[in-house]
């Protein structure tokens, strides 16, 4: 190859890959990531790939994924399809601390772990997910969840709800309580309502599902409501806030769910309570009074505590929903920003994408998508982009979106845990 | 020395992603699934697909909605990064 030829190749390569190798310009430092879910495991892998020393702190041996767990509840797949070990993350070279983070000291930049060790950090990334609030709904505490499952963290709760539905009497009543915003997975309760209705219609056709909602509008509403009308008339009854849908108290002994207007007797009650960021966020001083974590939309650095970044469900990410897709996308952007910051470069403004699929029946998928950018200090929707599947699409499109949903799950879990 | 630099560039796992690019691998993975893989496509292919999704010339379920969030230049940068092995 001649000198000119080499230069041409170099120029071509530089143009093709954008001339900014992630690490080449000397990012150095220790990064600790807390939480090995969709956000944290992703961030740790990106940082490690760039050559940084990173420790991922996660107590669980097996991660149980929430996406598609509504299918487990409806008896459409086993819980084992939700389980992912950390062998892949470890094999990728990430150092794992199999314990939980108990305390963060933002002044000394240290994380104290439950096993007694302490980790120093130059940058800390928190992706700890949510805590269910057991102080928000009268009668709904941790013990009540053993009778009226939330099933909003995948695992024993998911199986409990699936078992209760399978064992329910023929003409029984299921009550599903949906919280106000914000909460993990905005369309999730409506996907759950759909798949429970599908289960009832196919297995216990005389049974009913009552959905009590603390709000009047929700994600993919037109699509859900038109599907419910077509598929589940007489099975699924939706009660919005305006019709008295807000649940104010539950009584697990009586199996009753109360609004200001009515008390519903349930054979099975699924109560999705209000939520906040997992406790380590408040402990670290990065959660505000809302219980969630305000962040910079370029770097995901906390607005409250320097050098601590928050991604995923725990973060206040503007227009981005609390989804696994978003947690993964945010983690990649945040990790790149951390690499830049450690190399004393200024991170450039990102764009992020979200796509969330929901199943309203087996083989019937719908989606919502969005593209986001930092605007006036928050992550805002890019106007003209995103939106939901068309309301009047043919069955073939619904089938295709159901197939895409499955494939999304396969791809993202392989990327994060494989 | 130039060869050394070339090797360094080739060995670099991934250059920093242009805006939006790192989100793509949320759905697009290994070949063989329902969602098309992006590996093995040229930058021109990817950029022209994005342009066709943006105008609606190419029918889609979701890419039409996503492509509208990116300008022509941003789409080209994403296409170049993906074709260069970014993920
Ligand atoms: C029913 C349901 C359906 C859903 N469907 C979809 C879907 O179809 N598509 C989609 O994109 N999203 C979906 N989601 C949302 C998705 O599950 C969450 O948005 C996603 O899990 C958020 O990722 P995360 O990393 O923020 O938190 P998580 O995935 O919850 O991970 C947090 C991790 O942090 C760990 N952790 C917490 N505290 C500590 C500590 N102190 N020390 C160490 N580790 C700690 C936890 O053990 C956990 O492993 C769904 C959710 C539900 C409930």
TrEMBL record, chain B:
A GO molecular-function descriptor: electron transfer activity
Against InterPro entries, the record matches this protein to:
Cyt_c-like_dom (IPR009056), Cyt_c-like_dom_sf (IPR036909)
- Which positions make up the signal peptide? 1-16
Q: What are the record keywords, sorted?
A: Heme, Iron, Metal-binding, Signal
Cytochrome c domain: residues covered: 1-86
Q: Which domain of life is it from?
A: Bacteria
Q: Does the keyword tRNA processing apply?
A: no
- What is this protein called in UniProt? Cytochrome c domain-containing protein
Taxonomic source organism: Methylobacterium tarhaniae
């Amino acid at each position: 190859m001649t000198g000119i030829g080499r230069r041409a190749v170099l120029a071509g390569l530089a143009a093709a890959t954008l001339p900014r190798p992630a690490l080449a310009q000397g990012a150095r430092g220790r990064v600790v990531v807390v939480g090995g879910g969709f956000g944290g495991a992703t961030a740790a892998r990106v940082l490690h790939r760039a050559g940084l020393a990173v420790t991922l702190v996660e107590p669980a041996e097996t991660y149980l994924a929430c996406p598609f767990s509504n299918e487990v509840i409806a008896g459409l797949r086993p819980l084992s399809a939700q389980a992912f070990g950390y062998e892949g993350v470890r094999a990728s070279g990430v150092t794992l601390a199999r314990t939980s983070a108990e305390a963060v000291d933002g002044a000394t930049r240290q994380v104290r772990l439950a096993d007694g060790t302490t980790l120093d950090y130059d940058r800390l990334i928190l992706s700890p997910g949510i805590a269910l609030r057991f102080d928000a709904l009268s009668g709904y505490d941790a013990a009540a969840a053993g009778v009226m499952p939330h099933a909003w963290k995948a695992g024993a709760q998911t199986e409990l709800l699936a078992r209760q539905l399978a064992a329910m009497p023929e003409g029984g009543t299921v009550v599903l309580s949906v919280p106000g915003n914000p909460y993990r997975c905005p369309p999730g309760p409506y996907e759950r309502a759909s798949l429970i209705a599908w289960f009832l219609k196919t297995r216990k056709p005389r049974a009913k599902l009552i959905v009590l909602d603390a709000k009047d509008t929700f994600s993919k509403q037109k699509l859900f409501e038109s599907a419910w009308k077509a598929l589940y008339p007489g099975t699924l009854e939706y009660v919005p806030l305006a019709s008295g849908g807000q649940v104010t108290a539950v009584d697990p002994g009586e199996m009753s769910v109360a609004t200001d207007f009515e008390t519903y007797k349930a054979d099975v009650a699924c109560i999705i309570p209000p939520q906040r960021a997992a406790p380590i966020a408040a402990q670290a001083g990065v959660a505000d009074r809302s219980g969630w974590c305000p962040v910079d939309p370029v770097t995901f650095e906390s607005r409250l505590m320097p050098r601590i970044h928050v991604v995923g469900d725990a973060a206040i990410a503007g227009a981005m929903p609390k989804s696994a897709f978003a947690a993964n996308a945010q983690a990649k952007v945040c990790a790149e920003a951390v690499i830049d910051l450690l190399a004393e470069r200024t991170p450039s403004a990102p764009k992020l994408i979200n796509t969330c699929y929901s199943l309203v029946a087996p083989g019937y998928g719908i989606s919502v998508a969005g593209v986001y950018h930092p605007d006036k200090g928050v992550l805002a929707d890019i106007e003209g982009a995103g939106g939901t599947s068309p309301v009047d699409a043919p069955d073939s499109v619904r089938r295709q979106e159901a197939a895409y949903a499955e494939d999304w799950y396969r791809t993202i879990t392989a990327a994060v845990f494989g | 020395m130039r060869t050394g630099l070339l090797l360094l560039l080739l060995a670099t796992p991934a250059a920093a992603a242009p805006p939006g690019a790192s989100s793509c691998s949320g759905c697009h993975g290994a070949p063989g699934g329902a969602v098309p893989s992006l590996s093995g496509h040229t930058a021109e292919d990817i950029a022209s697909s994005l342009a066709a999704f943006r105008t609606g010339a190419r029918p889609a379920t979701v890419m039409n909605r996503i492509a509208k969030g990116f300008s022509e230049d941003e789409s080209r940068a994403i296409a170049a990064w993906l074709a260069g092995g970014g993920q």
